[in-house]
Amino acid sequence: MPDLSHIVKAYDVRGVVPDQWDEPLAELFGAAFATVTGASAIVVGHDMRPSSPGLSRAFARGAAARGADVTEIGLCSTDQLYFASGRLDLPGAMFTASHNPARYNGIKMCRAGAAPVGQDTGLADIRALVEEWAADGAPEPVEKPGTITQRDVLADYAAHLRSLVDLTGIRPLKAVVDAGNGMGGHTVPTVLDGLPVELDAMYFELDGTFPNHEANPLDPANIVDLQARVRETGADIGLAFDGDADRCFVVDERGEPVPPSAITALVAERELAKHPGSTVIHNCITSWSVPEVVKEAGGTPVRTRVGHSFIKEEMARTGAVFGGEHSAHYYFRDFWNADTGMLAALHVLAALGGQQGTLSELVARYARYAASGEINSTVDDQAGRAAAVRAAYEGREGVTLDELDGLTVTASDWWFNLRPSNTEPLLRLNVEARDAETAARVRDEVLAIVRA
């Protein structure tokens, strides 16, 4: 019997193929997904990993055996699957392991309208059924099994995104895009087709073995090629997508990375211009600049925990127009509260092309503070080290503490957040201050305690 505790995570299924899971197990997941959602129809898509087509088709067979009609949309980005779930109003399953190495694969599942499925919203029930059936045998197929049909939604997805951001009147731009051999190579050409954007494509060949670099732009090593190409060609902007193309990272005309918090602030300002007075969600480690810009634009900022489930819950609860995270996940009410890096990229292109300045000049007003970036420390005792940090700052004059997500310590000219990893023996530190010298001082002070 497979040990699902290693592959069923908080928000998705993810593990090594075929060591930890395989097509027979994917078929059981499909049957369990159809049973738990009670859906008469579902939509399924997959990325470019070598194992994805087989796993996806096995899942479809399992769902059809429980009576669900399955629409296969084939190769797609994760946000393209969310589009299909939203537009068709069907539960969906996306086969991808995002930025993980080639031997991994996984399933991101959602209910109709792209509503997330996590441990508390169906994933635990799906796991329980799969474990039961893996031990006792799959259930008998229903009397009338569902059908499996194919549908291409790429053009509809592109048209929807372009209906939300008008780029037809912008000045001509040159954009270098690094797809990392991931699904951005599938979506970007269609989305940008016919727009005044000259596309310089890097690593657009779909290849789930990732021959050029990992499809994880959060690691600075993986955007080196993009930065060099932007500088060499004099491009206006560089964009990098992760493996399943739901996250987008931006570099300016100098090849310098633009902080995701600055992109969050920029897009928030644009969304608030369309929807005055709306709420914008940001997590507890985005820059001070995000709530500042939201207030300046007449909106209401709401701070939440890190993680897409918390962002989506708060967006649904508050009716927020937009949400952003430091990890370059961007969520839109006009996109069923789901995250889409491509829509965020269109907003940045529209803002850049709507004025004559450079991208570095444009984002300067949103990147107001000095930040450390996320620093990971391997520790033997997460709770003990975090408690030591708390003790060092508790009661200090002019300092406040909160534990919305880990420990956040705030002073008049700096703040830091220290969070434990849920999957590794790590503490993650983020520091921001009004100047680089203060940020470095606070960073070193906290790390001295963490690593003592």
Account of the protein in words:
The chain is 36% helix and 22% strand. The chain has 452 residues and is α/β, with parallel strands linked by helices. It has four domains: 4-152, 3-Layer(aba) Sandwich (Alpha-D-Glucose-1,6-Bisphosphate, Chain A, domain 3); 156-166 and 173-253, Alpha-D-Glucose-1,6-Bisphosphate, subunit A, domain 3 (Alpha-D-Glucose-1,6-Bisphosphate, Chain A, domain 3, 3-Layer(aba) Sandwich); 260-363, Alpha-D-Glucose-1,6-Bisphosphate, subunit A, domain 3 (Alpha-D-Glucose-1,6-Bisphosphate, Chain A, domain 3), CATH 3.40.120.10; 370-450, Alpha-D-phosphohexomutase, C-terminal domain (TATA-Binding Protein, 2-Layer Sandwich). The strands form four sheets. Strands 1, 2, 3, 4, 5, 6 and 7 form a seven-stranded mixed beta sheet that branches. Strands 17, 18, 19, 20, 21 and 22 form a six-stranded antiparallel beta sheet that branches. A hairpin with a 5-residue loop joins β15 (322-324) and β16. The longest helix is centred in the N-terminal third of the chain and has 15 residues, at 23-37. It starts with 12 loop residues before the first strand and ends with a helix. One of its GO terms (biological process) is carbohydrate metabolic process.
Summarize the entry for a quick read.
With 452 residues, the chain is an alpha/beta fold. The chain has helices spanning 23-37, 52-65, 78-88, 123-136, 154-164, 184-192, 224-233, 260-274, 289-296, 308-318, 341-353, 359-363, 382-393, 436-450; strands at 13-16, 41-46, 69-75, 92-95, 104-111, 115-116, 148-150, 173-178, 197-202, 237-241, 248-251, 257-258, 279-283, 300-304, 322-324, 330-332, 370-371, 375-378, 400-402, 407-410, 414-420, 426-433.
